[in-house]
Specification:
Blueprint (H helix, E strand, L loop, with lengths): L4 E4 L4 E4 L7 E6 L10 H19 L3 E6 L17 H9 L3 H18 L15 H13 L3 E4 L2 E4 L1 H7 L10 H6 L16 E6 L8 E3 L2 E5 L3 H11 L3 E7 L3 H16 L4 E7 L2 E3 L2 E2 L10 H6 L11 H9 L7 E3 L1 H23 L11 H19 L4 H19 L10 H18 L11 H19 L3 H13 L2 E5 L5 E5 L4
Parallel strand pairs: 3-4, 3-10, 10-11, 12-14
Antiparallel strand pairs: 1-2, 5-6, 6-7, 7-9, 8-9, 12-13, 15-16
Helix pairs in contact: 1-10, 4-7, 7-8, 10-11, 11-13, 12-13, 12-14, 15-16
The chain binds one RNA strand through α1, α8, β13, α11 and α13.
Length: 500
RNA sequence: GGUUCUGUGGCCGAGUGGCUAGGCAGAGCUCUGCAAAAGCUCCUACACCGGUUCGAAUCCGGUCGGAACCUCCA
């Protein structure tokens, strides 16, 4: 089998993946800020890294997957107002800060469950690691790479850049950063505009506040990830993931902080997913084009023509490479919806196939083709997680599977071993690695029983050529959103339309 | 303005220099009481202009679009 190669943002090329500790992988992914509801944009990184998490486990690694919850507020705009986002919102909604944070954390977990993402191994909160953050800031101060100013602590970027490559990850040029002349209030606390806050003093009205050696305040934007990653994954770990928009300054700053604190670069492989765009524009609060996940699932948004099932969204995301932008549109989502249904129907048909008789393949050519397509799954996935290509291969096998089901091709065309491999391959990749599951909610046993009864009555009616009755059953069910289909050989199948 | 990336058929999207990705939509046929599904077939594109090469969507240069980051951000 080929080796796993991942695109490392740090080197801007694909590298063979090896873990620091054989058999183990440490992976940190920047989690959500729970000051508001998650939107469609959030779906991408968590689904992307869920698949990476699942795939690494499939490869046999024991993975510690750490994804934080940012529940301590960050600046609306650094230095300008020094108002904590969560604190502001809390006043507006008349909620306790922790109440607000809990509400959106719960909602986030709910949405992630809808997407069938596995929970991370550790989900640390920023508020739960104030002590670790303060300790880290102390170390950086002791090392001489930070300075205190008016109750705040800033990282000295210029000093760091003198001996380290600040900008390596994001391709930023330090001289340019230092020359920025942007006028920002509160900037006078900093020695250089490029410096970033490790600790901010809190104004009296600021609700989220903690005691520190520098006075009452709250942690800066970047320090939480460094502190928590160090605590749970060590000074050096394998993978750090997140959206491309976090490359600078967030991840660049993380590298600087951790390097000073731990005397080594923290991360071996930086993996960044690209953005979801809507009408060609990034989705974000500042663009006013946000579709919240609850709206996406309910269809309750002006942009949406209908509700979209979480699995449709998951499939939509997997149909493109994670480093490409993905443009959202109703047309594209509906194409994915139909594609997923077709693929899933074939998958279910496949699992029902039984093969008897001599184990050899009746059609050696077809047998080889299927085996080749299956073998390519790993090849594609090892090539920087090309989920789109794996899915394309699956679609190529769909006509073969459906033809075997309809007996247009005998099941014995493939060897017994190949059929088993096919079944196992689809199951493993579709469910275990890609994390897809049926969009049908038809697993209610009472509904199953009722439907079986209707199917039996319709079969009887049809056998009497009583098409009035048989059509009535099918048409009435259709009005209820249940599709009844006649199959070859007199069998019938049914499904709940849309999967909503 | 700086940095990085990008421009593929009606739409979405893979693409390692030569051999049809795939999905959706559309057309025809087969199957079928009808329908739906399914199967088969068709629809062959790479922003523009140069260059390298026997050969380029793929490499290089330029032009023109678009995006992300440079400020909270998945």
């Amino acid at each position: 089998m080929s080796e796993l190669k991942v695109y490392n943002s740090l080197s801007r090329q694909k590298e063979v993946f090896t873990s620091l500790t054989p058999g183990h992988v440490g992976m940190y992914v920047c989690g959500p800020t729970v000051s508001g509801e998650s939107h469609l944009g959030h779906a991408r990184p968590y689904i992307t890294f869920d698949v990476i998490f699942r795939y690494l486990q499939y490869l046999g690694y024991k993975v510690r997957y750490v994804r934080n919850i940012t529940d301590a507020g960050h600046f609306e705009e650094e230095g300008r107002e020094a108002v904590d986002k969560i604190a502001t919102k809390a006043v507006l909604e008349k909620l306790e800060p922790m109440e607000l944070v809990q509400k959106y954390t719960n909602l986030f977990h709910w949405a992630m469950a809808q997407f069938n993402t596995l929970p991370p191994s550790i989900e640390p909160t920023a508020t739960g690691h104030i002590v670790e953050q303060i300790e880290m800031i102390k170390k950086i101060l002791e090392a001489g790479y930070a300075y205190e100013s008016n109750g705040s602590v800033y990282f000295d970027v210029k000093k760091y850049a003198a001996g380290h490559d600040y900008g390596k990850l994001s391709g930023r040029v330090i001289e340019d950063l230092l020359e920025t002349t942007r006028e920002l209030e509160g900037q006078q606390e900093k020695r250089d505009t490029a410096d970033f806050a490790l600790w901010k003093n809190a104004a009296p009205e600021h609700i989220m506040r903690w005691q520190s050696p520098w006075g009452v305040g709250y942690p800066g934007w970047h320090i939480e990830c460094s502190a928590m990653a160090t605590k749970y994954l060590g000074a050096q770990f394998d993978i750090h993931g997140g959206g491309m928009d976090l490359l600078f300054p967030h991840h660049e700053s993380e590298i600087a902080q951790s390097t000073i604190c731990n005397h080594s670069a923290p991360v071996r492989y930086w993996i960044h997913n690209n953005m979801i765009t809507i009408n060609g524009r990034k989705m974000g609060k500042s663009y006013n084009n946000v579709i919240k996940l609850t709206e996406l699932f309910s269809g309750d948004h002006p942009i949406l023509e209908k509700a979209y099932h979480p699995m449709t969204v998951r499939f939509f995301i997997l149909q493109t490479h994670y480093r490409s932008t993905l443009d959202f549109s109703n047309e594209a989502l509906q194409a994915s919806e139909k594609g997923l249904r077709r693929l899933w129907d074939a998958y279910e048909n496949l699992q029902k196939l039984s093969r008897e008789g001599a184990p050899e393949a009746g059609d050696a050519e077809l047998d080889k083709k299927i085996n080749d397509l299956l073998d390519e799954f790993s090849t594609f996935m090892n090539d920087d997680f090309s989920t789109a290509k794996v899915l394309a291969n699956m679609f190529e096998m769909v006509p073969v599977i459906n033809s075997m089901k309809d007996k247009l091709i005998p099941v014995t065309a493939l060897s017994a071993a190949s059929i088993e491999k096919l079944k196992a391959g689809f199951h493993t990749w579709l469910e275990d690695i890609f994390g897809l599951r049926s969009v049908s909610e038809a697993d209610n046993s009472k509904l199953q029983g009722v439907m079986q009864l209707l199917v039996d009555i319709r079969k009887e009616a049809k056998s009497r050529k009583d098409f009035v009755t048989s059509d009535k059953i099918r048409n009435q069910l259709a009005l209820l959103g249940i599709t009844l289909k006649d199959e070859k050989g007199g069998e019938m199948s049914w499904s709940l339309a849309g999967g909503e």
